Amino acid sequence: MIKTKIKTVPHWKGSKIFSELYRINFNEDYPSSPNIHIDESIPKDVAKHYKQAKLVLELAPEASAALSRCCLEKVLTEKYHPKSQKLEKIIEECSMDWPSSIKRCLYALREIGNFAVHPRKDSLSGEIVEIEPGEAAFSLMILELAFDYFYSFQKKVDEIINSINEKLIACGKQPIDEK
Fold first, then answer.
1. Residues of the chain where predicted confidence (pLDDT) is lower than 70
2. Residue-range definition of the domain harbouring residue 156
3. Which of 8, 106, 146, 155 has the most beta carbons within 10 angstroms of its beta carbon?
4. Domain membership flag for residue 6
5. CA distance linking residue 72 with residue 69, whole number of Å
C-alpha cells in the first residue's frame, strides 16, 4: 500500500528518506508480518529491519536493498564492535576468520545496497543503474545466510554434536568434544 502522508517512521539511519521517497508508513502499511519467520536468536531490532526489507521487496526494491545493507551493518557492529564506521572497512576488519564465501557474499550485499543509496551511472549509456527485484531478493538471501552464520550455526552444530555424544556415551565411547 502506498500512502501520501507519514505519521510514524521506524528508528534506523535512512528510514525517513525511504519512507518519504516511497510514501511508506511501515507501522500502518505493514502493521505485522505473520508470514515472515525469523529465528528467535536474531536480535529484535535486526529482525525488524529484515522484515521491513522483505515486506517492501516488490514495491520498492531499492528500499529493500538499502534496508538489507543497513541490517548487515547493524549485525556486524553489534556482533564485532568494529572501530570503522564504513561497511566496507567493517567487513575487512571483522572477517579474518570467516570463510571466503561469507566474505564475498557480504561484499556483494554491500554493493547492491550501495546502488540503492548511491545511484551510479552506466559508463556506456550514462543511465542510472537501477536495483532490480532479483538483486534486492539476492540481498535478502545473503542476509539470511549471514543470520545463519552469525547467530544460528553454532547452536545447530552444538545440537548435532550433543545428539551424537549421547549415543557415544551410551556405547561407552568418549564424547567428540573431549577427543
1. 1-35, 178-179
2. 15-178
3. 106
4. no
5. 5
